Amino acid sequence: MNEGNEKLADDARAVFQTGLAAADARKAVERVVSPTDRGELVVGSLSRRLEDIENIYVVGAGKAAWPMASALEDILGSRISGGDVTTKYSHGGPLRFVSISEAGHPVPDEAGVSGAKTILETAEAAGPNDLVFCLVSGGGSSLMPLPVANVTLEDKQLLTKKLLECGATIHEINALRKHLSAIKGGRLAAAAAPATVVSLILSDVTGDDLDVIASGPTVPDRSTFEDCLAVLDAYGIRNEIPPSVLAYLERGSRGEEEETPKPGNPAFSNTHTLIIGSASLSVEAARREAVARGYNTVVLSSSMEGEAREAAKIYAAVAREILHSGNPAAPSACIISGGETTVTIRGKGRGGRNQEFALAAALAIEGMDGIVVLSGGTDGTDGPTDAAGAVVDGGTVKRGRRRGMKAIGYLKRNDSYRFFEGTEEHLITGPTLTNVMDLYIMMVHAEKQGGGR
Questions:
Q1: How far, in Å, CA of 210 to CA of 195, rounded?
Q2: Structural domain harbouring 325
Q3: What total of structural domains would you count in the chain?
Q4: Over the range 379-392, which residues count as b (16 or more CB within 10 Å of their CB) and which as e?
Q5: SS (H, E, C) 402-438
Q6: Which of 63, 172, 231, 262 is most exposed, with the fewest beta carbons within 10 Å of its own?
Q7: Closest CA to 218 of 149, 126, 341
Q8: Which residues touch 143 (CB under 8 Å, ≥6 apart)?
Q9: Same domain, 29 and 11
Q10: 337 near 301, Cβ under 8 Å?
Q11: 326: CB partners within 8 A, 6+ apart
Q12: How far apart are CA 434 and CA 279, in angstroms?
């Protein structure tokens, strides 16, 4: 990158880091949970006398399970009677009162099944005077797999793989996960009843839909068996999934298998749910940082969806409009979105939705100076890679060409990771121990020199 674009890239990274800091899992828990001098435990708007609580248990799953559980231990100490949480491999750490296990993500594995069984057993052991904290964060659905009878983990793995390959949304994937699970779709809350259940949630889905986040283990499920079959039909894969899965879903649609608990079910009469972190909160923090750095800043959306490469084209079109007319913001401008795009896998390359977005954006702004695009996952991992995303400008494609790499070919075979490995434009954060979807940040400057300040 030239000097001007380097400064834009530095500012984009700083804006991203500020958005990331707003999703800090430990601080999010500390903001909402506190004992008082009057002997009460306050969680958001809920207040309980500690002497009236017989046991406090902690369960949950997600990429932020460890810092969330650690924060609760620091706040409540030995008042915690026990518990079990599951996180992604390499995302765990020491806990004193709660057991932690690590498992596979995004494809569930047997370690996840074992962890889910223990979580369910802990919930089932809770009594009417007990309090159960359920900690939910991104990845929680994959990390808490507990298939229904006659459906194997391998069956669920094959289904998940097929849904990811065809570009299904997280809402669609989780509808199926809930109906094939003995713990999701409100069934964890049903197991814990009549204990008080408090769910602390870091939202990683667009719209912060509670029954979609980690497949809603403690909230009513609005989806049905019929919805699941409709997803399969929408992508034309009804006959490409494991027979055991299809048979179970079809039995459910005929009323021969029990539906997930719906709104009004008594299992939810003593449940409380708080969203303590989300994409909208991170987007707002990022916006404030961009403004502080002197950019005319516009938030396009905190719930961006759609095919990654198509969404990238829209960003490029916005950049051209800014340079042409000064809309929706005059340069120097910063455009910010949060959300989660999808990738329809067409090739056998390596990458993720953020790197695919960045590579498509690089192609769309090829040869244009004064434009930098950052696409990064707040969890620090994009697909099965060690990168969170990438930072590109109008010279990215040319730099790849100089190294013998044709960007369009890498995009066609979904091989964005290897392309950015060659151009050295990866966004590397390491595991962030949180997840509130992705951040898309674009800096646009009208001149060839200088940045946004």
A1: 20
A2: 3-18+280-444
A3: 2
A4: bbbbbebebbbbbb
A5: HCCCCHHHHHHCCCHHHHHHHHCCEECCCCCCCCCCE
A6: 262
A7: 126
A8: 61, 62, 63, 65, 86, 87, 88, 103, 104, 105, 108, 112, 115
A9: no
A10: yes
A11: none
A12: 11
Burial of residue 264, with CB atoms counted within 10 A of its CB: 0-12 exposed, 13-18 middle, 19 or more buried: exposed
What local confidence, expressed as pLDDT, does residue 3 receive? 85
> Do 246 and 131 share a domain, yes or no?
yes
Residues 298-332 have pLDDT tens digits of 999 999 999 999 999 999 999 999 999 999 999 99
DSSP per-residue string spanning 292-307: HTT-EEEEEEEEE-SB
Strand partners, 48: 41
Residue 135 and residue 226: Cα distance in Å, rounded?
29
Question: Are both 375 and 438 inside the same structural domain?
Answer: yes
Q: What is the mean pLDDT of residues 199-223?
A: 89
* CA atoms of 129 and 11, how far apart (whole Å): 51
Q: Which residues of 419-438 are buried (b: 16+ CB within 10 A; e: fewer)?
A: bbbebebbbebebbbbbbbb
Structure tokens at 154: 């391998």
Q: In what order do the strands lie in the sheet with 40-43?
A: 33-35, 40-43, 46-49
Does the residue 423 lie in any domain? yes
- What integer pLDDT is reported at residue 447 of this predicted model? 67
- Judged by phi (left if over 0) then psi (alpha if -120 to 50, else beta), residue 164 lies in alpha
Inform me whether the pLDDT recorded for 87 exceeds 50: yes
Q: Give the pair of three-digit tokens for residue 77.
A: 């100490």
- Write the single-letter amino acid at 415: D
Cα 26 to the center of its chain, rounded Å: 17
pTM, rounded to two decimals: 0.83
Say which CATH number the domain at 390 has.
3.40.1480.10
